[in-house]
Amino acid sequence: MTDTRSFSLSRLPALATVGIFLVVVVVGFAIFAPNFLTLNNASTIVITASVIMLASLGQLLVVISGGFDLSIGGVLPLSAVTFANLTTAGVPMIAAMAVCLAVGILVGLVHTYFIVHLKINPLITTLATMSITAGLAFTLANGQTLTVPAEAGVLGDRAIGTVPWHVFLMIALVIVMHLLLSHTVLGRRIYMVGGNPEAARLAGVRVTVIGGSVYVFSGFFAAMAGIVTASQLLAASGAMGATTTMQSLAAVVLGGAALTGGRGSVPGAVIGVLLLGVIANGMSILHVPSFYQQVVTGLVLLAAVTLSRIQERARRAA
């Protein structure tokens, strides 16, 4: 029998929907901003979006498992300020990075204890840790912008052409996380826990271990994003990353992740990050004020959540 149902975005896979939207946005900016569709500008978009991509990798795991992490916007500046202080004090860059990553992992372990073991709502827990870590970042920076020694900025140095090393680091981590989610037992169990925790428990999955591990991953990636930001800018402050949490959430939801858990992918998150990066870059070229860009990001997030819910209802009705 021929399917006579009319075309609808609600019937398209989320990845296809955001992919189409990305193409439309790129074409639109290419028409109205002559300098938009150039190799140099494409490189700028990727470089700028790499920090959000790192944060989104951790956020993606948490969202797939059925939670969300609001602390990213606090862990990122705390990591950046810690990196600046340590490298300025003469600590080798690798050792400074290790300390910063340990701080991110520690925050993830704190989330594990309160969210997984004490069953405290992720919203309350991660909002509290965001406030704590952001406050610590401002305290360690004495409310100022710290400088990072040039020798500690290797991640921001150019590797090939105008592309710095941290972009290749980001690409490597994207590939690793895609393989983890798609081809490992841990990845399958993260989806199981997010889709149906009780069924996962009955299937022998250690739900508390899986539920805790995703917050540790998120803390790690938020700290890495802070290191990359400080290394790229050769500066760090407590005000860094103020919008990173919302951007990471918007990116993973745009890419098809469900806030109810059990669904999402690394390729989807990549497209979501690129879409946000293209919008921000295009609006900057058109000289749109930054506060309007924040409004647009919020509207895009709201639209993504709404479309996700419509698509979910369409799947259930099919």
From TrEMBL:
GO molecular function, one term: transmembrane transporter activity
InterPro entries tied to this protein: ABC_transp_permease (IPR001851)
Transmembrane segment boundaries: 12-33, 45-63, 93-116, 123-143, 163-186, 207-228, 234-259, 266-285, 291-310
Keyword Mitochondrion: no
GO cellular component labels: plasma membrane
Subcellular location: Cell membrane
Main location: membrane
Lyase among keywords: no
Recorded superkingdom: Bacteria
Pfam families named among the record's database cross-references: BPD_transp_2 (PF02653)
Membrane topology: Multi-pass membrane protein
Keywords: Cell inner membrane, Cell membrane, Membrane, Transmembrane, Transmembrane helix, Transport
Segments forming a coiled coil: none
Cross-referenced PANTHER family: ABC TRANSPORTER PERMEASE PROTEIN YPHD-RELATED-RELATED, AUTOINDUCER 2 IMPORT SYSTEM PERMEASE PROTEIN LSRD
Protein known as: Autoinducer 2 import system permease protein LsrD
